[in-house]
Specification:
The complex is a heterodimer of chains A (about 325) and B (about 600). With about 325 residues, chain A is mainly α. Chain A has helices spanning about 1-30, 35-40, 45-55, 60-75, 90-125, 130-140, 145-160, 175-215, 220-225, 230-240, 245-265, 275-285, 285-315, 315-325. Chain A has a single domain (about 90-325), classed as MetI-like (MetI-like fold), CATH 1.10.3720.10. The model of chain B is unreliable at about 1-20 (pLDDT under 50).
């Protein structure tokens, strides 16, 4: 088991190298750099721009820049943000908690709703409930997240039931820790809904399709013939078999949610990683973008690893083939 | 569980409403040289004011700032030596209570306010001023202020006369001097000298400082930082040592908690304002109809601030020659068109700017005809050449150059080249406007091909590789909103970086460019303001006659402000609430 985990982590290193190289080339090929904005401003002198180019190392060829970056990564130094003048790791650390709580809340929300919804849609196939849930799922799948976020803002503005964006109330720092917790929860309701809704729709459809596949399989007929209670068959045997693809998708879900959070955070001014990375990309703040890409990559790998372990736990067949060999 | 959750939400919502940000005012004696503000209605301390801005700051170190979000964040923390009143575009005393110019116009003696203290209680003296200028001129710390303070290749001289007097001197008379000196925020030597010496100056006063130890960031402005949450908001509290008071001896500012929320999406910003959650917002003309419906319910009013300070224009690439690869920057036959002023005039006569204003701005705007916006009343020349929509005149001008209408109804030159050019546009530019130009010119017989690219690419093509034919841009007023034309040097002068149509010329390519160069240098040395304005008028006349930039439209600017605020002084050349330290409102 430990060997398996170590092997997977070792496989990460060449992958990260490759991806960082690609991203670096892409950023180099993209026209403009972090100073583009300054270049277009009429009151910023040319001398200043030349001095800053030198300070940022932008006057060196890209491969030298990349090697210098690699060298500092070797000592676990992710560099200093050009726009913020503070270490990239500090900058990311400021934003990670907000985004992580949002992503996890959205994930939990999606699972709690999607799994039962898919199961019931499969058990009561072609019923009114199934039809309505399909229509809603297709509707939710076809609305882009940023538009949903705009609708949520509009909803909050019209009703006044929820805050219009943000993560904490103005008086947050004066609250007791208990009301601080509720304050954050209250502000997270709409972003969580917006971020989770797309996931629910997709997962419900997967769950339903898989469940239907397994209901028709021979072991279900056998169990029924033996007189096992219907509820026991459905929730003990079918569910456990049918949920595998969802567990696999869990590995991608977290990194997927992080990229979805980018748009939602921007519209709902939620102070997370998405906003920071988006701004860094637009401004070409190179080290911030590189660190964020590496982080996304590591998250994706860890998510997959976690999903594989979970899968092995849930499915004994997988345990014997992949992990112990 | 569900019921519990809902009720807790309601409870938490109620208690968060009940609490208020309260700020206790400390009572320190007013400084000896306190500025008693005369022309305002004295008021009472007011609870709070909430505003919105797009992005959070990148740093709080005023010396290294080169973009707007950080400039907005430090604006309330620091003071310069001289202030600027946008309502009458004049300079007013700040940390310097008065200044004298020597008879030869070469030295400026500034008398500093006595008894002023930094927000941590340390005294402010001439040493702080000297320290700030030392930092600006230090090779280790590149900044955008420095080159404005180098006059004719020689850096500005400065020395401390005594604790409350500093003297600046220049090698030749320099009219915008006070403009640039006043622009510099004075930094506290007692806080920053150590880092200045050991080379870590640029890494001081970062976001981390503002999050963890906001009291470390000390200034002489009306406010200090109370709380900073990145990407969320900044809350300011009054600087207990601020150097202004009202006629009753009450120390300014009146507002206890000044809050900026960071909202990057403009729709969200409008939603916040139109439901009464923020006190002020810029309102584009297209949103006026629906926003004004909410005005009565949420208790705000909409004001017209006059024309925008921005100038918008498109231009043709007039750079002659080839690049290193031997490619022409502009095809020679097209360059010949572009360099002909009649061609440029014809194009502008062919664009129905009034029509575009009616169609896209509900009539809230006017055609721009000068290189200075009409918002900049002090410098704007209203009597420059105007280009009304006149297709007949446009055709006459084109025929005069030698263009003929071909059998397809389009213009072509004597070699049979149809008049056709590529219009390079950055993503996010005003599409309705550009489509309008394209349609108008098509009717005239000129083909425009639109090419969309991202902003950085457009900058690269127009300022670096020069392989393009025509592009569009808008520019804000420079010189930190004083509107002094000296701030637009990079556009006006032929060796300027933003002399867009043919930048960084070794010697002026045309007579009129040489003339502008000459006038620009003259106005920089002209100490008599009326004469200086006359010289700038002349520059504008040449611009409008030669049309290197084809001016577009100046929109009218609207702002929404919640009701009840006193001492609001709107001016077209500034942010709406530029005099934040004087604002107050009756507490409910």
């Amino acid at each position: 088991m430990i060997r398996f985990i170590l092997k997977r982590i070792a496989a990460l290193i060449p992958l990260l190298l490759g991806i960082s190289f690609l991203v670096f080339i892409l950023m180099h090929l993209t026209p403009g750099d972090v100073l583009s904005e300054a270049r277009a401003a009429q009151d910023i002198p040319k001398e200043y721009i030349i001095q800053m180019e030198k300070q940022y190392g932008l006057d060196k060829p890209w491969y030298v820049q990349y090697l210098l970056w690699l060298k500092s990564i070797g000592t676990l130094n992710f560099g200093t943000s050009w726009t913020y003048k503070i270490p990239v790791t500090d900058l990311l650390a400021q934003r990670i908690p907000a985004t992580l709580t949002l992503a996890i809340a959205a994930l939990v929300f999606a699972w709690v709703i999607a799994v039962p919804l898919g199961v019931f849609a499969a058990i009561y196939k072609d019923s009114v409930f199934d039809r309505i849930s399909s229509i809603l799922a297709y509707a939710a799948l076809s609305i882009p997240e940023f538009f949903l976020a705009l609708l949520a803002i509009f909803f909050a503005a019209q009703t006044g039931w929820f805050p219009i964006g943000g993560r904490t109330a103005l008086t947050h720092s004066l609250m007791s820790s208990w009301s601080q917790f509720w304050d954050i929860a209250y502000h997270s309701v709409l972003p969580t809904l917006v971020l989770g809704l797309g996931g629910i729709a997709g997962m419900t459809r997967i769950m339903r399709a898989n469940f239907l596949d397994h209901i028709r399989s021979e072991y279900v007929t056998t169990a029924r013939a033996k007189g096992v209670p219907e509820g026991w068959i459905m929730f003990k045997h079918v569910l456990r078999n049918a949920i595998n693809p969802l567990i696999t998708s869990l590995g991608f879900a977290l990194s997927g949610l992080l990229s979805g959070a980018l748009l939602v955070e921007n519209v709902m001014n939620y102070p997370g990683l998405g906003q920071l990375v988006y701004e860094a990309l637009m401004k070409q703040d190179q080290y911030v973008v590189m660190a964020a890409v590496l982080m996304g990559c590591v998250l994706l790998m860890l998510g997959n690893l976690f999903a594989d372990i979970l899968l092995a736990w849930s499915d004994p067949r997988i345990r014997s083939t992949t992990i112990e060999s | 569980m569900k019921i519990l959750l809902t009720s807790s939400l309601i409870v938490s919502f109620l208690c968060s409403c009940g609490k208020q940000v309260t700020i206790k005012r400390e009572n320190f004696p007013l400084p000896e040289d306190v500025e008693i503000v005369q022309n305002i209605e004295p008021g009472v301390y007011t609870k709070d004011l909430v505003m919105v801005t797009g992005h959070g700051p990148k740093t709080f170190n005023s010396l290294i700032i080169d973009e707007n979000s950080s400039a907005t964040a430090v604006m309330y923390l620091f003071s310069g030596l001289v202030n600027y009143d946008p309502t009458n575009q004049s300079f007013t005393p700040a940390l310097a209570k008065s200044w004298e110019i020597s008879a030869d116009n070469l030295s400026y003696k500034l008398n500093l306010r006595k008894g002023v203290k930094w927000s941590d209680g340390e005294p402010f003296t001439a040493d702080d001023v000297i320290f700030t200028f030392d930092a600006i001129f230090d090779e280790r710390y590149p900044n955008r202020m420095k080159s404005d303070l180098i006059i004719d290749g020689k850096p500005l001289g400065y020395r401390k006369v005594d604790d409350y007097t500093v003297e600046f001197y220049t090698s030749k008379p320099y009219a915008p001097f006070i403009n640039y000196i006043g622009d510099v925020y004075i930094l506290p030597k007692h806080k920053l000298y150590e880092s200045y010496k050991d080379g870590s100056f640029q890494k001081q006063w970062t976001l981390e400082t503002a999050i963890n130890t906001p009291a470390e960031i000390v200034g002489t402005g009306p406010y200090c930082i109370k709380e900073f949450l990145p990407a969320e908001r900044i809350v300011y509290k009054p600087n207990p040592h601020y150097w202004k008071a009202d006629i009753n001896g009450k120390r300014l500012p009146y507002i206890d908690a000044l809050v900026y929320k960071y909202v990057s999406d403009f729709n969200t910003e409008l939603a916040l304002f139109s439901t009464g959650q923020t006190a002020v917002s810029a309102l584009p003309a297209r949103d006026l109809p629906w926003v004004s419906k909410a005005a009565a319910k949420y208790n705000f009013s909409i004001f017209e601030r006059g024309p925008s300070a921005l100038i918008a224009f498109f231009w043709f690439n007039m750079k002659p020659g080839k690049n290193e690869k031997g490619e022409y920057y502009v095809e020679p036959y097209k360059l010949k068109w572009f360099q002909d002023k009649r061609f440029r005039q014809a194009i502008l006569h062919g664009v129905n700017r009034e029509g575009i204003i009616q169609a896209t701005m509900l009539g809230h705007g006017e055609p721009l005809n000068s290189v200075i916006s009409p918002a900049n009343k002090k410098w704007y020349n209203p009597n420059v050449l105007k280009y009304d929509y006149d297709p007949q005149k446009a055709r006459t001008l084109l025929e005069e150059i030698g263009f003929k209408i071909n059998d397809k109804g389009m213009f072509e030159d004597q070699f049979g080249h149809p008049i056709e050019f590529d219009f390079l546009i950055f993503e996010g530019a005003n599409n309705a406007l550009i489509t309008g130009i394209q349609e108008n010119l098509k009717n005239l017989g000129v083909i425009v091909n639109l090419t969309y690219m991202d902003f950085a690419t457009v900058i690269d093509k127009t300022a670096n590789t020069f392989r393009y034919e025509c592009s569009i841009m808008g520019m804000g007023s420079a010189g930190s909103d004083t509107g002094d034309p000296a701030g637009s040097k990079a556009i006006y002068k032929s060796n300027g970086r933003l002399h867009l149509w043919d930048p960084e010329q070794k010697t002026p390519a045309t007579e009129w460019e040489a003339e502008i160069d000459k006038l620009f240098d003259l106005q920089e040395q002209e100490m008599d303001e009326a004469k200086r304005v006359a010289l700038v008028y002349k520059i504008q006349e040449i611009f409008s006659e030669e049309l290197p930039l084809l001016f577009l439209i100046t929109p009218e600017v609207f702002v929404g402000i919640s009701n009840g605020w006193k001492n609001i002084k709107l001016a077209s050349m500034s942010i709406p609430l530029w005099n934040i330290d004087e604002l107050w409102r009756k507490n409910k």
